[in-house]
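Subject: design request, 161 residues
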């Protein structure tokens, strides 16, 4: 069987359990193309609902009162990418990646076409409201891409899709 090539969207730094899960799904000889998006954060109402769904009442109140939504800055994205590539390589996977400063879905389409990817894996923080309302990256990717899309929360073994 030919080695797989997977595009991984990382919202959090990949850890060894994330890499092991990807290897279990696609094989140890899989090549990873890691994308890390620079984001402005999620809409405030989604943030409030996420905090409530996770039982984080103080954070929900802060979000409701106007605290800015969490964002991934260019420097944070660079750290996530650098550390994720190091972990993947330490686990024996071939990995390369890039920071996506613009539209993530457009970057996914381009990356899939360029590397002839067999699928997409999204590794994110819990966004329960966005996931339930199908406003998350995985739902958008499924509507747009012609390859399988798998989503799980970083550091867990729970597949969301």
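Subject: RE: design request

Done. Sequence follows.
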């Amino acid at each position: 069987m030919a080695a797989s090539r997977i595009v991984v969207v990382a919202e959090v730094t990949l850890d060894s359990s994330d890499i092991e899960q990807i290897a279990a799904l696609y094989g140890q000889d899989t090549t990873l193309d890691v994308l890390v998006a620079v984001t402005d954060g999620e809409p405030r109402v989604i943030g409030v609902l996420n905090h409530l769904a996770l039982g984080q009442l103080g954070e929900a109140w802060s979000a409701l009162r106007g605290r800015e939504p969490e964002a991934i800055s260019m420097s944070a994205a660079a750290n996530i990418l650098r550390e994720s590539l190091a972990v993947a390589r330490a686990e024996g996977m071939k990995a390369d990646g890039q920071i996506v400063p613009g539209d993530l879905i457009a970057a996914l389409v381009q990356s899939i076409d360029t590397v002839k990817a067999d699928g997409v894996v999204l590794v994110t923080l819990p966004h329960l409201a966005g996931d339930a309302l199908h406003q998350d990256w995985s739902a958008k990717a499924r509507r747009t891409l012609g390859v399988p899309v798998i989503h799980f929360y970083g550091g867990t073994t729970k597949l969301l899709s």
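The chain has a mean pLDDT of 77.
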